[in-house]
Structure formats: C-alpha cells, structure tokens
C-alpha cells in the first residue's frame, strides 16, 4: 500500500499526491519529501527564509526573493517596439522626415526606460532607422 498523503506543489501550491513527479497544474518537477511537501506554499516561504541564514545565524544578504523556477516572460516594451516599427516604416514612407522623427522620439523614450537586451536592440534599430530617414529627407530638401 502506497502512502498518498496530501502535499502541495512548491511552485504553484496545487495539491498533489506524494507519488507525483510533476505538478499537474504548472508542470514543475517535484522532489517531494514529507517534511516540506505537506506544509503548503505559505509555510514553505518561512522554511526557505530559515534556510537562507548562514551558519553563524546571520541572514544571507545576497539572497533575492526571485524564484529561479519562474520562467514567465514579460511582453516587449511598447516604446521600443513602436520605435522599431515606425523606423522600419520610415524606409518606405518618408514624408519629409516626419516619420523618422517619430521613430527617433519613440526609440529615445524607450532607451530612457529599464530594458532587456533585446528591447535595447529594438530601440537602437528604430533610432538608427529614423535617423537615416531624417538625413535622407534633409538631403532632398537642400
């Protein structure tokens, strides 16, 4: 007879059986042991906090509250995306450099925010495309 005491997923808190290897709710790999799995997500945070203290009893100051198993992706920054799209459109529609100016403005607004590496690349491509569009328009005006 197997022991199927109720336990909880450490990632999402979904109730699971002790034989379960993967959470049916979030798919997290489970390494269940009876001491931690029966506590639920609320009590596991306290246990994790207790584990982050060093051997001298001092708290570990380098510990962050980020869950390493959290693979959620946030959407791309809208300003960086707008700068890129308008910058690429400026290659087709010049309108005396106005489209390029708009691309440069959105890209600069995006670069003033906290961006990921990919978002920075998008903003820079939009900025360069807009700047080329402005220079192209100025070459025809003069």
TrEMBL record:
What InterPro entries does the entry give? Zinc_ribbon_dom
Point to the regions of Low complexity compositional bias: 38-59
- UniProt keywords, alphabetically: Membrane, Transmembrane, Transmembrane helix
* Ranges of compositional bias, category Polar residues: 60-69
Map out region (Disordered) in residue numbers: 37-72
| Domain Zinc-ribbon span(s) in chain numbering | 8-30
**TM stretches of this protein:** 81-109, 121-141
What name is this protein filed under? Answer: Zinc-ribbon domain-containing protein
Q: Source species, please?
A: Levilactobacillus namurensis
